[in-house]
Each structure stands twice: as C-alpha cells, then as structure tokens.
Specification:
The chain is an all-alpha fold. The protein has helices spanning 19-42, 54-64, 79-96, 100-106, 112-123, 130-141. Helix content is 58%, strand content 0%.
Length: 146
C-alpha cells in the first residue's frame, strides 16, 4: 500500500518535560556514559588461548638444534638429532597432553617407551643442563596464552 506524499503519520503526544527534569536526565546519561567508558578502559581485551600445533613445535625444536625437520621423524641416533627429537616429544606432551603412544606414532612408528624416555630424560635433567635451558627457552618463545 502506498501513501500519498502529503500524508503525515500521527505523532505520539508526550507530557511536557520541565527544564529541571531535562537537566537531571542529561546529568544521569552523562554519568552513565562516563561509567561505561571507564569500565571499557579497565577491561582487558579477551584473550583466546593459542596453542602451537605439533608441526610448529617440531619445527622450533629442529631449528633450535639446527637440524632438518625431516630428521626428527627419522631413525638417526646422532646426538643433535636425538636431542631435537627429545625436545620436540617433550614439548608436544607438554602442550597437547597426548599419550606416549600417540607421540610415538607422530614421530613415525617409534615405540611408546621412546617417547616416555625422551620426556623423563628432559624432565629429570638438572637445571644447568643445556637441553633443559633450551626447553625452557622454547616454552617462552612458543605461543601459549592460556
């Protein structure tokens, strides 16, 4: 239904507002705006937890020991590769709380005992151990906001 251009809709009639009431409502709205503004300034932005995935963890561990990423899933027993693999397994366990069997499978058909040994060796290392310091450094570098 179309209305002619000259048609005016009826306006609702409201009781007249005195100047005093108007000033009070303006003050109240101003106070409310100030309170909301202060509350918004105080409230920190919401933090969403970010957990690195296993690929990022493996890449960081490989980079820390300067070995190619593909070597972490290989069978080499070279010391640098073993340390990088141990670090990656421990970090995956720390961030994702996976079973040892799942971690072993992630590192290509290794026995769960290998993952257990890797995690326990690093956890029981003395604080002055280079591996332990690398582990702590990577914990600080990898994104974890939870």
């Amino acid at each position: 239904m179309t209305h002619p251009a000259s048609y005016e809709w009826p306006r609702p009639t409201l009781p007249p507002i005195s100047n005093q009431q108007s000033a009070i409502s303006n003050q109240q709205s101003t106070l409310l705006k100030l309170k909301l503004t202060k509350a918004l300034r105080k409230a920190p932005p919401p933090i969403t937890p970010v957990t690195p995935d296993a690929g990022q963890i493996m890449a960081a561990a490989a980079e820390a020991y300067d070995v190619p990423l593909s070597y972490l899933t290989g069978h080499s027993r070279r010391l640098a590769i073993v340390r990088a693999r141990r670090l990656a397994m421990t970090l995956v366990r720390y961030y994702h709380d996976l079973s040892f069997q799942a971690i072993a499978t992630m590192f290509h058909c290794r026995d769960h005992g290998t993952a257990m040994h890797a995690c326990r060796t690093l956890e029981n290392a003395p604080p002055e151990c280079i591996e332990r310091r690398t582990f702590i450094r990577l914990l600080k570098q990898l994104p974890l906001l939870a």
